[in-house]
């Protein structure tokens, strides 16, 4: 709570690598990279197209995937607070048109579009066709089962009621 008599704290003293015990200090990015490396072990590195939509994962997505051995091509790979006037929402199909074109015209196994803050993704298949989130969920469950990373639980329940109703409404 701000009061008229309150003072802002002084700026923290900048840290240098010599003042930080390296085993105890790990940047968030390093922690995230390590977690991704532990979670995914590509058997056959793929060619992936990534649309960063000018969001905060620009540059990072390319670097992480490339260091894992993937052949990566990125578009809209510049972090811009104004998103260059576009809407960084991969749930809106028309926002993925550039990614779909890139995948259709390239030699990619799939494409991924990230939203502005990188916490959502939408995938397109090797033909540039949009995949719905239900399909992505099934593919991820299949990966966990096939890779043995399912924690001993192999029963997958997927409720298609909503998806079936939505298809019926769209007819």
The global form is globular
Note the run of SSEs as H and E: HEHEHEEHH
Q: How far apart are the first and last residues' alpha carbons, in Å? A: 54 Å
Q: Which ranges are low-confidence, i.e. pLDDT below 50, for 5 or more consecutive residues?
A: 1-22
| Beta-strand percent range | 5-15%
Q: Measured on Cα atoms, how large is the radius of gyration? A: 21 Å
Secondary structural class: alpha/beta
Overall pLDDT: 79
Helical percent range?
25-40%
Number of helices: 5
- Number of DSSP strand runs: 4
Largest sheet: 4 strands, mixed
Spatial strand sequence of the major β-sheet: 2-1-3-4
Task: Explain this structure.
With 171 residues, the chain is an alpha/beta fold. Helices cover 31% and strands 11% of the residues. It is built from 5 helices and 4 strands; from the N terminus they run αβαβαββαα. It has helices at residues 28-39, 60-67, 97-105, 133-146, 161-170, and strands at residues 47-51, 71-75, 110-114, 121-124. Strands 2-1-3-4 form a 4-stranded mixed β-sheet, sandwiched between helices. Helix 2 (60-67) links the parallel strand 1 (47-51) and strand 2. The longest helix is centred in the last third of the chain and has 14 residues, at 133-146. The protein is globular, with a radius of gyration of 21 Å. Mean pLDDT is 79; it is low at 1-22.
């Amino acid at each position: 709570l701000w009061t008229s008599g309150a003072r802002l704290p002084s700026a923290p003293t900048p840290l240098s690598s010599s003042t930080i015990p390296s085993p105890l200090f790990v940047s968030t990015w390093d922690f995230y990279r390590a977690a991704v490396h532990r979670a995914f072990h590509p058997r056959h590195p793929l060619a992936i197209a990534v649309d960063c939509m000018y969001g905060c994962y620009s540059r990072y997505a390319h670097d992480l995937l490339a260091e894992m051995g993937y052949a990566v091509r990125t578009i809209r790979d510049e972090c811009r607070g104004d998103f260059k006037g576009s809407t960084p929402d991969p749930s809106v199909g028309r926002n993925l048109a550039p990614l779909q074109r890139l995948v259709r015209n390239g030699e990619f196994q799939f494409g991924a579009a990230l939203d502005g803050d990188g916490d959502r993704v939408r995938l397109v298949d090797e033909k540039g066709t949009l995949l719905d989130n239900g399909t992505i969920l099934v593919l991820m469950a299949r990966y966990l089962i096939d890779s043995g990373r399912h924690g001993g639980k192999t029963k997958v329940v997927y409720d298609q009621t909503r998806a079936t109703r939505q298809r019926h409404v769209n007819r």
